[in-house]
Amino acid sequence: MFDPGILYYAPQGWLSDDSDAVERLKIQYGASMCYPISSMGAHVSVAPNHQIYRNTPLHTRANVACFGTFGYELDPAKLKGEEKEEIKEQVKRYRKYAGLINEGDYYRLTDPLKDSCAAWMFMDGKKEKILLNAVMLESHGNMPVSYVKLKGLDADAVYEDADSKKRYFGSALMEAGLPMPVELKEYPAYQIELNKI
Fold first, then answer.
1. Is 0.90 surpassed by the pTM of this model?
2. What does the angle CA 82 – CA 85 – CA 87 come to, to the nearest 5 degrees?
């Protein structure tokens, strides 16, 4: 960790040598209480992770890294062809949302230290565009649906999911929440764009 005063001299710092994506959820969550997202160095590292040997999906590692400065800390020569293609898409997606992530309002939606889902969101100043990010931390038989309650929306407005085209009232997203898919795999992650219509 670094002293917040150093941000006057250096706009970004490395939060921890622990680069495991699931561990980073907790580290970055805690750091976000004091540091802006744009100051938190966050990278996609190799899997299995070289420190704790957890095997986290590439998609999940990228989702967590975009909750910071977003970069890669791995050997591209060791990647499979489909992983290289996935990385190209991840970089495109990050570039699409970089302005929203670095300049939008940031909301902590759950606590990864105690909840079964780590969720956070970015929203533009007009409350018209939202990027919701979620990582499921638990997987077991008969998984209940996790509902992520959003914050700060216009309660009377309608928001549309950019991919599914489903529509929700702001009040419903804040009071009942958005249901996350139930997938029986380790640490699935979701990035959902919602637009006010």
1. yes
2. 110
